[in-house]
Amino acid sequence: MIPYSVNIKLAARTLTGTLNLQNKTAVDWGWQGLIAQGCHSSILIIDPKTSQTIQVLERHKANVVKVKWSRENYHHSLSSPYSLRLASADSAGKIIVWDVVSGTAHCEIQEHSKPIQDMDWLWTQDASRDLLLAIHPPNYIVLWNGDTGTKLWKKSYAENILSFSFDPFDPSNLALLTSEGIVFISDFSHSKPPGSGGKKVYIASPHASPAHTKPVPAALPAPTGAKKALNKVKVLITNEKPTAEAVTLNADCLQLSYLPSKRNHMLLLYPREILILDLELSQTVGVVAIERSGVPFIQVIPCAQRDALFCLHENGCITLRVCRSTTAPDESVAASDPEQSVQELVYDLRSQCDAIRVTKTVRPYRMVICPVNENNAALTVSDGRVMLWELKAHVSKPTVNPNSGLSPLYAPVAFCGSPLGQNQKKIQDLSLNTMIGQSLVSGADPPPPSLQQEVQLKFLLTGLLSGLPLPPFALRMCPPLTTKNINHYQPLLAVGTSNGSVLVYNLTSGLLHKDLSVHSCEVKGIEWVSLTSFLSFATSTPNNAGLVRNELQHVDLPTGRCFAFRGEQGNDEPAIEMMKVSHLKQYLVVVFRDKPLELWDVRTGTLLREMAKNFPTVTALEWSPSHNLKSLKKKQMLAREAMARYTTLSDNEQSSVESSVISLLQDAESKSEGGGQAISAREHFVFTDTDGQVYHITVEGNTVKDGARIPPDGSMGSIACIAWKGDTLVLGDVDGNLNFWDLKARLSRGIPTHRGWVKKIRFAPGKGNQKLLVMYTDGAEVWDTKEVNMVSSLRIGRNVNYRILDIDWCTSDKVVLASEDGCIRVLEMAMKSASYRMDEQDLTDPVWCPYLLLPRAALTLKAFLLLQPWSGTFTMDITQVDYTEKHEIKGLIQEQLNSMSNDMKSVLLDPELNLLQRCLLVSRLFGDESDLQFWTVAAHYLQSFAQARHLSVPVPEGQSPAEGTQATPQGHLDIYHDTLCESFYFQRFQLERVHLQEVKRSSYEHTKKCADQLLLLGQTDRAVQLLLETSADNPSYYCDSLKACLVTTITSSGPSQSTIKLVATNMIANGKLAEGVQLLCLIDKAADACRYLQTYGEWNRAAWLAKVRLNPAESSDVLKRWAEHLCSPQVNQKSKAILVLLSLGCFHKVGEMLQSMRYFDRAALFIEACLKYGVMEANDSTNKLIGAAFVDYARLLRTLGLRESAAFWASRAGGAGEQLLEELFQGEGAVPEETEGPENTE
């Protein structure tokens, strides 16, 4: 037998089952790496890596309709630590913000009592991390402080609001999906409600094609199939309400989301198509359509790291579609006709997972994807299953037939943003952007073949969580823990289900231990006959004669063997009402509805007695806990001793042994029948008949004796159940009366509970424990039979909203309840459903989640993983470093380190892993959004500037290296960084976007916007062509024609320049900003144009223009001004400003800013990386910054208890660190807390 370490303390927990329809949208995957899911009124917290439920939050009274993890988009320190914060909203309009580790609520919010339609945390967290926006039906949006529960503002709109989406590039933009269309809000701010009612937009598809159409060039092949249909239905976005003849498409719009992969794009989801809109043009630029036989969409999640969509279909299939690169196969064609190269955005199907079997009760609900890596998806199914799919990339052979439809996908050969070392270890499929290369843009050179490899994507099912089946349930806990079975005891709970299977759960871990298919119909009752075997019975639905098929099975758990206990009997007989096993597990009584009871011997499986026809009808029955086993064993011992003595006597003495001893021996031996275990002890049971008379029957071996009868108690109705323990017997009747009998004192006491039918009563296990659990139709109560008073009560409607189906004790102080909402709850005796502390839980598999640690320990773990330069080698054992901290905390940190995958450990221990890769990897491990963004941009630009310097091209600080020197492993940042990308790439991307808009334009408005964009981009010839398209009956015909003439005749002669400049400045002064800026761009005064845009607060537009039109020096000036503006207190987006400065290569300034913002760890590591890459040199101008940063980091490390590490950084800091070094070494043996000065409590 394997020695188990027995955990006697069982955690209170909830085993959950099928979902409610209202839980459909309640699922979220957070940056913290965990999935939260609503199940009825509870919330499950699931760890997707080990696929186990690690917490269940219970406080809502109504069904949970939304859950949202808070974002981690801020710098984490001791004052703003890593913590698990979750907001959940229910159908009664209550929002609760949870501290998930302790299972307690931070605050509760209630505005109205209707279900919350949508909610989300604000993603810009520089000003505050606690802001939560919620839609309170029908038409309010309210901004709450999620920490205190205070309302900041409330705003109502004209239409009913269904959902909203934040613009991931601009925190002041918000789009609301309403019942009639879309409302765009462009002045969203946390300080005050939006001023206007927003810009309303309606979606329509007119039947007749609009007046302004473009003739289709004859050269193009005629579009086929779905394309043709969609070209006919040009989807327009109009500001007017659609007229009667236009079909409003909004009715079945399922979802609206901004694309996080490129700015100003949005997707709308319909059951049979996804539309991609370009918001600058308000026009559809891409359609993903399903052909007629395809399976409709339910949901789509756009990715940020690459332009890709995860789509969920109605059959539970998840598909991944990746945007096709727009490079034309033949560049020469593209150059002659730009329209040939790009027709619309096309999303190619790259991978799909298996579908599930959809039935009436089983259908897919929602999918969530991991926000950190975007290569894992989880699917929730209505039956309570959660399926975890992982995307894998396989390196494939180059395709033989290149024109077989799809172009090949390429993956970059790099790791964490840096080229791979010679023998460097890497983690396969770390995240989506390491699996799929960047989308190419026409005009940009593709990366050399050495830096990429062709891959194919596959979905792999890596985890599955399943819930309980549909209720009703029959519960029975295995026999209680005793001193005898303590070495191999497992707290198993058997759950009989409606489909005939018996599920056995281990309550220590809360995991399913065995799922046994035992019966063919609903299981009605279970009785354990040992720690590893039980009897269960099920009855089929009655036939016309009222007879059923009874199944009584004996199941052995270790082997899973079941056999029919009553043999062939059981067809066409009255239904079994109950079965009761005696205390010593020797005998079994089976009670039928209209047939006398049967008495069986459990050990031999034989029928001892079938009672006579005139036997009274049994209404309730219970075995007595008293028996004569002890006296029998004593007799047997005496007999054995006597026997032993008897055989050692000499012959002449034997005759003198008393005959009484011999008779005693024979008597004992006959009783023990072959010695050992098979002693048949005498046991009793009592039962009541329909008149309430109590009968007492004794069973010994195979003899059954009728004992005393006690007449009925007049105050009781028909007895429904009996419980007996020690000297207390309790009877419960159908009217809700409990009668307590004290058998020693011969007293009885009746208590009316006024709760109706007493369904079940059970005594708690444990010697001298006289607690009693009572079940009624409307709830349950715990009574103390010693004092005869009620301990706790649970009633439907009062403190819970579900009916209780079955009850049992699982330990001497915990009860287990099965309820109608499909859950089984293990509760304290007080029966308050409570969440538990996660850190007190026994998990089967260790979970990697630094958020579970104390704030200080989490930061220590991070520092430990980031840098261990003090020892020369890396270690994954915290005990090997000088770390002064309590043992428990050290142990918890070590557990976290141990729970990492072996791949991750070997990569972190690899000496080839450079500092930038390490910082990126750790920020991914911690799910730290702000760190990840900072290090992605920093790693890219540090390497690109270092390379430029290495090629000895002098690059003045504040300018991007010229295009020619761009030889970094990743030629450029991907477009989801928007204005942080290199100018040459940004410019090409914008040009391509205008070409696409041009192809797609369908009205004069669109054409005008395209012409304006082309002028700003400097594409004058194309702009003139568009201006000349204006038809003669258009009011702007004259104006446009003149503009076309102006554009073609502009020369750089002095007088015309100054005139145009004067006109432009006058226009700007009179409120025509866009027109003035255009004129300035025409005469190559884009730098002035940017200055004007900035003066008038158009900061984003100015940055855009600087990127596409200015030379590096001028552009850098504009962007630096923007960075200063972002740092100003009223804007407060310092983290964005830092990224802008990184892209300009102002590394010294970035170091100073990080230092002044007290981001000590980030500042020190960044400066260290700058020194390593040689983009910053230690000289008199920089030494002050380097010293300060290193000393502050050393102080922080000392606060965390990492002394060796602190000493290392202090020694690097030069003069500034001397004092700290002295303190560190002078306090040898002293606890660092004592030497903590007030200046470094931060």
From TrEMBL:
UniProt keyword Phosphoprotein present: yes
Entries under Gene3D superfamilies matching the protein: YVTN repeat-like/Quinoprotein amine dehydrogenase
GO annotation terms (biological process): animal organ development; cilium assembly
Domain spans labelled WDR11 second beta-propeller: 490-832
Entry's transmembrane regions: none
Keyword terms: Cell projection, Cytoplasm, Cytoplasmic vesicle, Cytoskeleton, Golgi apparatus, Nucleus, Phosphoprotein, Repeat, WD repeat
Chief subcellular location: cytoplasm
Superkingdom: Eukaryota
Keyword Repeat attached: yes
Pfam family, one: Beta-prop_WDR11_1st
WDR11 TPR domain mapped to chain residues: 1002-1172
One cellular-component annotation, GO: cytoplasmic vesicle
Residue ranges occupied by any WDR11 first beta-propeller domain in the UniProt entry: 22-319
Compartments, as annotated in UniProt: Cytoplasm, Cytoskeleton, Cilium axoneme; Cytoplasm, Cytoskeleton, Cilium basal body; Cytoplasmic vesicle; Golgi apparatus, trans-Golgi network
Name of this chain's protein: WD repeat-containing protein 11
Species, as recorded: Salvelinus namaycush (Lake trout)
Gene: wdr11
